[in-house]
Design goal:
The complex is a heterodimer of chains A (about 350) and B (about 110). Chain A is an alpha/beta fold. Chain A contains seven helices and 20 strands. By secondary structure, chain B is an all-alpha fold. Classes of the chains: A alpha/beta (about 350), B mainly alpha (about 110).
Chain lengths: ~350, ~110
């Protein structure tokens, strides 16, 4: 195989999968490297997706099947990278060495560790779970912390995001709409339950998101309280009491809940640090990889032949991630076109 | 005995103890009442607001927090001009909501 057609794609989430798929259809030989034992990334652990309640399988199955013929290396990470005039030489774990003229980085994000916000009691109180735990429960029905017939369920927005003290100044972008999706799903399963969303601002920017919000308010009767939860305490009966300020009325509010869901935000993936230093691509102040610029060249790095796709450069939705993966693949094509 | 100070009752609202039956009845008749986003356009445009504290935003919030006295006070200040309905970005029929709340109040008068 000619090295000049080989393109390394690092990260096997939706960004990497879509990038590899597009590279294949552009006539390249993508090699997809994934650190975990399976493809699909964070999306694979979700159940349904906003704003149309699309089952995750409807996104992942076509992506997976379109990768037929693409070399996929699971349980593999990048050890070191060196660059000569014409190509990158990438040493992978498990002894594999790949020479390629271009690389797409699609290493994604990390979910904020909710236990770091100790005042919310994750890992301390039995009735406190995260957005990811709730999706897992939607998938498996197994989680001892979710009661059989809850009468009150709360959602805390912005857990670890827009929080300088937690080290994440950025808005995680997808949690507001995820909270509303999950609140509607909880209400569908437990129609008798009162559902409360505690938010700082509601940021519902995407197509159909506002419709989703109106649906949650009007048809599901979900209560939106503008105020950040200050603390959570466990009651003697195992439930939790949440304290916040209802900033619209200027009064403190308290409510007893059977289940509290923390919307853990998208934060930078620390695994990017090693990759960034090997490839000499800079990190941004927020810890995400830095694009060449944030309007015209979001999927390009400062290094020739190194491209970005998806949440390695910042929080993004799935459609945005897929578009970037296509953009990055096209970027590789245009970059190499003059060099053949 | 005078200690030179006294204790005020807690101003905290306990959401699970608040009686929201009137609000729920209102939403059954006018589902739009739930879609308020608290933007304050209604209060900003209200002719009576400056002089009386009338605010549809506050009225809807007070109903949800069980502040019935505040609701009653505000209702008496409205002149039903309907400017609030004109400016509401969510298309809530605020004027009809005020009339509906007045009617619901008539039914429960004496209970408050």
């Amino acid at each position: 195989m000619e090295n000049k057609d080989q393109i390394l794609v690092i990260g096997g989430g939706v960004a990497g999968m879509e990038a590899a798929r597009q590279l294949k259809s552009l006539g390249f030989k993508p090699i997809l490297v994934e650190k975990g034992p399976a493809l699909g990334g964070h999306v694979a652990s979700w159940n349904r997706l906003f704003p149309d309640m699309t089952p995750v399988r409807k996104v992942l199955d076509p992506l997976t099947s379109s990768l037929e013929g693409v070399e996929v290396l699971l349980d593999t990470t990048v050890e070191s990278v060196s660059r000569s005039q014409r190509e990158y030489t990438v040493v992978l774990t498990r002894g594999r060495v790949i020479k390629c003229p271009a690389i797409i980085i699609a290493t994604g994000f990390k979910l904020f560790e909710a236990r770091k916000k100790e005042e919310y009691g994750y890992g301390i109180y039995d009735r406190v779970i995260t957005n990811k735990d709730l999706e897992n429960w939607f998938n498996t029905g197994e989680d001892g912390r979710v009661p059989d017939r809850p009468s009150a369920v709360g959602f805390v927005h912005c857990v670890g995001s827009r929080d300088i003290k937690a080290g994440n100044q950025q808005c995680s972008k997808v949690c507001c709409i995820t909270a509303i999706k999950q609140a509607i799903e909880v209400k569908e399963r437990f129609p008798q339950a009162e559902v409360y969303c505690f938010y700082m601002d509601l940021r519902l920017f995407g197509k159909k998101y506002e419709d989703f919000y109106i649906n949650a308010q009007r048809d599901c009767g979900i209560h939106f309280i503008r105020g950040r939860v200050s603390e959570v305490a466990e009651l003697i009966d195992g439930r939790v009491q949440v304290k916040a300020e209802d900033t619209l009325s200027g009064r403190p509010v308290k409510v007893k809940l059977d289940l509290l869901v923390l919307m853990s935000g998208i934060v930078c993936n620390p695994a990017n640090n090693h990759l960034a230093s090997e490839l000499s691509v800079p990190l941004d102040e927020d810890g995400f990889l830095r694009s060449r610029d944030n309007i015209f060249s979001v999927t390009e790095s400062d290094r020739p032949g190194v491209f970005f796709a998806g949440t390695c450069t910042g929080p993004k939705t799935i459609p945005e991630t897929l578009s970037e993966a296509r953009g990055a693949a096209l970027g590789v094509y245009n970059y190499l076109k003059g060099k053949k | 005995m005078d200690f030179g100070f006294n204790l005020s009752p807690s101003s905290a609202v306990e959401l699970d103890k608040v009686d929201t039956s009137l609000f729920r009845e209102l939403c059954r008749i006018e589902p739009g009442a739930r879609t308020c986003i608290g933007c304050g356009s209604c209060s900003a445009t209200c002719t009576a607001s400056e002089h009386s504290g009338m605010s549809v935003r506050k009225l809807l919030l007070s109903l949800q927090r069980g502040k019935m006295r505040d609701v009653e006070k505000m209702l008496t200040c409205c002149m039903l001009c309907g400017k609030c309905t004109m400016v509401c970005p969510r298309g809530i029929n605020t004027r009809r909501i005020i009339l509906t709340v007045c009617r619901l109040y008539e039914n429960v008068e004496g209970r408050i």
